[in-house]
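B., you asked whether I could sanity-check this one before it goes into the benchmark set. Here's the sequence:
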Amino acid sequence: MSTSRSVTLSRRGILAAGGAVGIGALLAACGGEKGSAGAGGGKGGPWSFTDDRKQKVSLKSTPQRIVAFTGTAAALHDFGIDDQIVGVFGPTKLKNGKPDPQAGDLDVDKVTIIGNAYNQFNVEKYAGLRPELLVTNMYEPNALWFVPDTSKDKIAKLAESVAITSARVPLIKIIERYAELAESLGADLKAKKVTDAKARFEKASEALRRAAKSHPVKVLACSGSPDLFYASNPGINADLMYYKSLGVDLVVPDHLDKGGYFESLSWENADKYKADVLLLDNRTATLQPKDLAAKPSWAKLPAVKAGQITPWSSEPRFSYAGAAPLIESLTKAIEGAKKVN
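And here's what the prediction gave me:
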């Protein structure tokens, strides 16, 4: 993650819906039960899970009161974990009251929202939920996603935590880790809902592979802010890594900002990289085509002139159900694109 103080956009900072950046490393302070015996699964016996910090969390029984980052909760829900999720933090509801896209199919009215944006984590409300486990993503080593630095120590004392790496490894690997976690929590990975979603994901992936081969167009994953244009790095973003592995010809920026997620460009240099298709960050805090239309340098981009812009959910939901539609959308964009450079 960038440690820039900019309030415009960082690859992972903008999601803080106010441009807050640089979430510091949150080293787990979870009571040191790494040596405890345990086994995943059944509610009646001990439960344990080793997360991507290589920390083993052990409890006397499978946790029934889970609080999770919204996107994480949505992914677990896709695998069949539902009633155990009692609270969420992170983008959950839009200003109009509808679910944020990151909430996926999660019923946001059934869970307690302890914070709807970065630094809104209500510790008192969290404690009141009597949490047994906190689950979130980890974009930087040992940094728990959307757990504020200012209250991380208090939060860590209230319940054990599990963190799943969400960058620098391909999308499919992260989805598989979430499947493992969900199964340990009691999910049935053979349930029709899960197997159907996996089949759709695999079919979509193969279709993208074919499209990338038969329509060799160059794709730039990017984000727009009032002052800067960001070219994203397919070598660190999990979804882009996966698309690249399927043959998608993604632009690789050559002058990455600290953190490695993107290269920030002035709008005058927005045409540095030649691209036939723009995969444009569609999060609410980023500028969309209607917002960018007034920028002359945006309007001059060949892909923009050709109308070859497709939405990029740059924080994917790490489940088969969450990822399949994103892959299908990119496939459609590539199939319908022509070379403009």
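One thing to flag: The chain has a mean pLDDT of 88. Otherwise nothing jumped out at me.
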